[in-house]
Inverse folding.
């Protein structure tokens, strides 16, 4: 799996940043002291933790808020990812293992989005959204989510386990 971009909004001292990861697997962060380099790394680490299904403590929820008085709004971390050909084979093998005979057309990219809502500096709620629009071959209108929702959910659990659990964030 290859990460294409990461978007960070209202995370600690970062108002909005998009990190383009399409050209290289090695990215260098260069900037003045207090310009947000460490905060970007913290956001990336948090994204991986959320992808592994981690829940945030009250202290962690307080620590990710933007600086300033009485923040009301949302904090979001989102990544656009791309499967590599070997990843599709893993998914097809998983479908065979669980006795699913459907053939799927996979999307070129998919995304994970995590949003945390605050009102007057107080955490209110959060939402995670996965955009993985796999379609059953031969059906052009409906995605797997709409036609086989239970299988779609199993596939997301497999993807989370297979790719995100293997990543060690330190």
């Amino acid at each position: 799996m290859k990460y294409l971009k990461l978007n960070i909004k209202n995370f600690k001292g970062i108002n909005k940043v998009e990190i383009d990861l399409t050209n290289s697997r090695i990215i260098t962060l260069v900037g003045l002291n207090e310009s947000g380099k460490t905060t970007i790394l913290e956001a990336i680490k948090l994204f991986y933790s959320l992808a592994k299904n981690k829940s945030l403590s009250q202290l962690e929820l307080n620590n990710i808020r933007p600086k300033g008085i009485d923040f009301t709004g949302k904090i979001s971390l989102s990544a656009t990812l791309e499967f590599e050909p070997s990843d599709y084979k893993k998914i097809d093998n998983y479908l065979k293992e669980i006795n699913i005979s459907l053939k799927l057309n996979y999307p070129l990219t998919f995304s994970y989005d995590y949003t945390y809502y605050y009102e007057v500096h107080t955490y209110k709620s959060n939402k995670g959204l996965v955009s993985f629009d796999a379609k059953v071959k031969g059906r052009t209108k409906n995605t797997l989510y709409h036609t086989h929702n239970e299988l779609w959910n199993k596939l997301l659990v497999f993807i989370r386990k297979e790719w995100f659990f293997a990543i060690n964030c330190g």
Q: What stands out?
A: Confidence is low (pLDDT under 50) at residues 165-170. Residues 2-164 form a domain with the Rossmann fold fold (CATH 3.40.50). The chain has one domain: 2-164. The chain is about 30% helix and 30% strand.
